Amino acid sequence: ERNAAPCGDCGACGFGCRRGTKRSGPRLHLAAAAEHGARLLPNALVERVVDGRVTGRFVSGRPFEVRTRRVVLAAGALRTPLVLLRSGVANPQIGANLHLHPTVVVAGRFEQRVAMWRDTMQAASSTQFLRDGYLIESAPGHPGLIALAFPWTGATESAALMRDIDHLAPLIGILTDHGSGRVTLSRTGRARISYRISPRDAKTARAALVAMARLTRAAGAQRVVALGTPAAWHEVKPNDGAAWRAYLDRLGRFDFAPNRGSAFSAHQMGTARAGRDPRTSATDPWGRVRGARDLYVADTSLFPTALGVNPMVTVMALAARVARAVHEDSAAT
After folding, report:
1. Mean pLDDT for each 10-residue chunk of the chain (333 residues)?
2. Any residues with CB less than 8 A from the CB of 297 and at least 6 apart, and which?
3. Contacts of 48 (CB under 8 A, 6+ apart)
4. What pLDDT, on the 0 to 100 scale, is given for residue 21?
5. Quick check: 201 and 180 in contact, CB under 8 A?
6. What is the pLDDT of residue 90?
7. What pLDDT was estimated at residue 1?
């Protein structure tokens, strides 16, 4: 289901809805909050939260301070741990357990025009291989994303690729990662992300490449490519059984060492993990931050493990759960 009114041809969904038909956070949740009296501070960068005192700076450089009884932190799994660390919250689990849903890509070049950036984006998915650790989806093949994702092999080759872009149909394999990484503070106060695909997840990634290549060929692709450095191309020809099997074998051995197999991600999770055991979690099961008072987390940082599917609905459910905890704690004091 799409959380948007009928539309379908501008192709900018992933970069902000130009028409305002996408029921995103600003149009839905923040609008409802404003209607109920919430004050919004746009362009405000939060630096620290200590005992109900929220401090930071606007983009212009002007400082601000907010004092409140309770604070809910929802800066995303790459930024929430930074705010907690800058705030002096001492817990070794903060920033740990980073999950990313590593995503691998296979694209097909078709004779007919596809134009993946038109109409409804990401309109198809397959859950056939969820038990094997990955989900297949059609990709939001915006020209800018394709130009970014495909490896650079030279100006001539890149220009030829972009001229042919409306015939490309990329698929993505979203992995349920079992390895994990960490987010720490750099010396400049930015996020330093440490993550490497584990051997187990690399095996799953190779299986996803093979399945997507088979799917792309079955759909009638003239060429198939798996993204990496270098990319692995195959020209589909009649009676090319031996060459096709060799290509699938190549994908089954795809190298996912750094700067080899390409992996992408749009889902970051787990850096303030919720749980009952203080030794393995940064918050309790209701999002209360351990080692802090009246401070809660309500975003994907709470995930104890990788979800394996797009996390939007789960984030909303967790937010409602944390909101109930805030309400109950407020009523009790």
Report:
1. 71 78 84 94 95 95 96 96 95 96 96 87 89 93 88 91 94 96 93 95 98 97 96 94 96 94 93 96 96 95 94 93 96 86
2. 72, 73, 74, 80, 272, 274, 282, 283, 287, 289, 322
3. 54, 55, 56, 83, 86, 87, 88
4. 82
5. no
6. 87
7. 66
Q: Residues 263, 205: contact at Cβ < 8 Å?
A: yes
- pTM here is 0.91
Given the structure tokens 């440490």, which residue do they identify? 194
Report yes or no: 244 and 279 within 8 Å, Cβ to Cβ.
no
* Residue whose entry in the numeric block shows the structure tokens 């907010």: 66
The pair of three-digit structure tokens given for residue 78, joined into one six-digit string: 């790459």
**Both tokens assigned to 169:** 């149909």
> What token pair was written down for 12?
């900018």
What is d(CA 232, CA 237) in angstroms, rounded to the nearest whole number? 16
Q: Residue 5: what pLDDT?
A: 75
Catalytic (active-site) positions = 267
Rounded Cα gap, residues 300 and 78, in angstroms: 10
Return the bridge partners of 181, or none: 98
Q: Which amino acid is at 16?
A: G
**Residue 296: which of 260, 330, 331, 254 has the closest Cα?**
330
Pairwise CA distance, residues 326 & 310, whole Å: 26
Contacts of 259 (CB under 8 A, 6+ apart): 229
Residue 312 φ then ψ, to 5°: -60, -50
